[in-house]
Amino acid sequence: MIKIAVLGAGMVGRTIALDLAKNYDVTSIDISDTSLSVLQNKNSKIKILKKDLSNHKSYPELLLPFDFIVTAVPGFMGYKTVEAVILSKKNVADISFFPENALDLDKPAKENNVTAIVDCGVAPGMSNLILGYYNEQMKIENFECMVGGLPKEKIKPFEYKAPFSPIDVIEEYIRPARFIENGKLITKAALTDTELINFDKAGTLECFNTDGLRSLLFTMPGIKNMKEKTLRYPGHIDLMKAFIAGGFFDKEKIDYKGIKISPLEFSSAVLFKQWKLGDEEEEFTVMQIKISGNEKGKQKTVVYDLYDEYDHATKTSSMARTTGYTCTAALNLLIKNLFNEKGVFPPELIGKHAQCFNFILDYLKERNVIYTKKEIQV
């Protein structure tokens, strides 16, 4: 049986391991006894291994028994982790959403005869995949993605819960946002260009600039306008701006009574309790993708919508489902040899292949993660 190692046993990593374990021999590797225990209580067939995944020198020996790897570690660990997997000559699907440019690993991936599919989540992830598909069908002029994961119960003051590390969420609020406007790269502070948007099921949400285009900035140079925005309940942005103004998200360490501490790391630790998503807490994921351009001489707009909720039957969060199952779908492309080019591939370079695009959408639909599509042709 095919052997898979899932690096990271957090909320999304567990979901990935549970999904893959239906068909494959899965081992979950993490340093946290608690996370590993939670996973094994859900499925005792999944093997667990306690290891420090920041020890990248151990990877060649650690990963030797496995055929494929999934990396589901926190973003700050992601780049070095994927690099270590590539240097261990293992094919990999990644959801760690690290801030570095994954395409910088393309050369070592090719040199080691490895396929690495990165950013295999919702956004980045499915948004890229959809854009990559339509970029083959039409001359795209505009791309916009709005996305967010939110708790169904709004508890003040934050009205927000995170299915992953708070420090990764805060990164969205402080990392400058890059987007394309009239063919030019524009950089603005995050949390800018706010607007209120009404969604049928989610209600009125506010959106703001975040640095979510990532690889699209480099792989889709011909598109004149591209932007990605994050969705939150109204009022959340002003609260985050207050934290930023107060210095709570500063990365540079300060001296407090002889102790050197980073305000960002301290704030992340404090907010963990406030933002931690309960194991059975109801939440939802909402995303809308708009693509417009010219197809065979006619203007065309394509809109994809996703609204997904916590799954009571499997007790799985929506963000873990929508992110994790996209990743397991991508890994299955590798396992089934539906995609076998060597190098590093963000999802838009996978979506350009219709077979891969349709496979992932069907895979998600089987797990009740459903993207609805409408087209407007002029």
Task: Report what the structure shows.
The chain is an alpha/beta fold. It folds into two domains: 3-121 and 319-369, Rossmann fold (3-Layer(aba) Sandwich), CATH 3.40.50; 126-309, Dihydrodipicolinate Reductase, domain 2 (2-Layer Sandwich). Helix content is 33%, strand content 29%. It is built from 13 helices and 18 strands. The protein has helices at 11-20, 33-42, 59-62, 75-87, 106-111, 126-135, 166-174, 216-219, 236-245, 263-275, 318-335, 347-351, 354-366; strands at 3-7, 25-30, 47-50, 68-71, 91-94, 115-117, 139-151, 177-181, 184-188, 195-199, 203-209, 225-232, 254-256, 259-261, 283-295, 298-309, 343-345, 371-377. A seven-stranded parallel beta sheet has the order 3-2-1-4-5-6-17, with helices on both faces. Strand 2 (25-30), helix 2 and strand 3 form a beta-alpha-beta unit. Helix 1 runs parallel beside helix 2 (33-42) and helix 1 packs across helix 11 (318-335). The longest helix has 18 residues, at 318-335. It is globular, with a radius of gyration of 20 Å. The model has no long low-confidence stretch (mean pLDDT 95).
